[in-house]
Amino acid sequence: MIKKFLAAVLMTISSAAALAVPFGSQSVLVVEDDTGKVLFEKNASTVAPIASLTKLMTAMVVLDAHQDMNEPIEIDKSDVDTLKHSSSRVPVGATIPRRDVLQLALMSSDNRAAASLGRTYPGGMDAFRLAVKRKIAALGMTQTVIEEPTGLSPHNKSTAADLVKMATAASNYAEITRITTSTDHLINIKGRDVEYHNTNRLVGAKGWDIGLSKTGYTQEAGRCLIMRVKAAGKNATMVLLNAGASSVRVLDALNIRRHVLGDTIPVVAAAPKAPRVRSSLRAAVGGPRIKASVGGPRIKASARGPRVKASAGVRVKASAARSARVKKAVVVSRHRRHR
Fold this sequence. Notes:
By secondary structure, the protein is α+β, with helices and mostly antiparallel strands. It has a single domain, classed as Beta-lactamase, CATH 3.40.710. Helices cover 32% and strands 23% of the residues. The chain has helices at residues 2-19, 54-64, 98-107, 111-119, 124-138, 160-170, 174-180, 246-260, 281-286, 320-325, and strands at residues 27-32, 38-42, 48-49, 72-74, 95-97, 157-158, 184-189, 192-197, 209-218, 222-231, 234-243, 276-278, 289-291, 298-300, 307-309, 330-331. The strands form 5 sheets. It has a 5-stranded antiparallel beta sheet with strand order 2-1-11-10-9, sandwiched between helices. A 4-stranded antiparallel beta sheet has the order 12-13-14-15, with no helix packed on it. The radius of gyration is 20 Å and the shape is globular.
């Protein structure tokens, strides 16, 4: 009885500590994968736009169709975003194998790539939408509606609770986990090797063991993130919806790791320090400027959005040596509308 009482007290203290953390995302859900236990919850049943988190569903439906992944897909004018007018470094007329198109859609969150996957689905876009509807029902995502493959539509909506179900299902696809945890990838575009990067800057960061990742952003959805991580001996899935800036989204992930999972990012030489937020004109324009402990990412916000610089243990950009080896590579910056 005493042991049970002490365990209950410890759980209450732990929950209180987690609740004291000021998570910036409007909806947050953290679930332990092995047990299904909810570790932290904030507005998990609130329906909200999900932006490019949609692309995980797109990928599952495409892979379920068992299409030829080596088949070339030509990017069409109809794949161009006329809703948000987001840019893409994938030109109309480019012919790319379906496998690389899937890589662009998931890792770099390219909207033309995702649109072309829906367009070339067996039976066309109508058949794609029907397949998505069936997949949603099969996964028991009762509060989810997805109308198109990119996430640009504000009508693509779900809850954090439903998105944990989607993340769990997506993690069973080896191709999805491989792609979403890749830091970068070279793709031949019209005879040139173009280097694309992962939109989640925690992927590849030292000390982060990430098994699945997808970011999302539209004006309606804010900054969103799905991530499966291993930390402090726990395998957990986190869903963050409607954060005000990428820096807020990253800080929430750091706080989940520290306060909810009870783990910290390994340090290189010095003792870890808690992240601190500095107010400045730059922060007022683009969000808070956040410095993490040694071994973690350092994020600077600006009017165009946060920029992560490499620090001890974090590699964000390819080194000069790598750039020299990839002579023909064209480094492609991610467009911030579809992150």
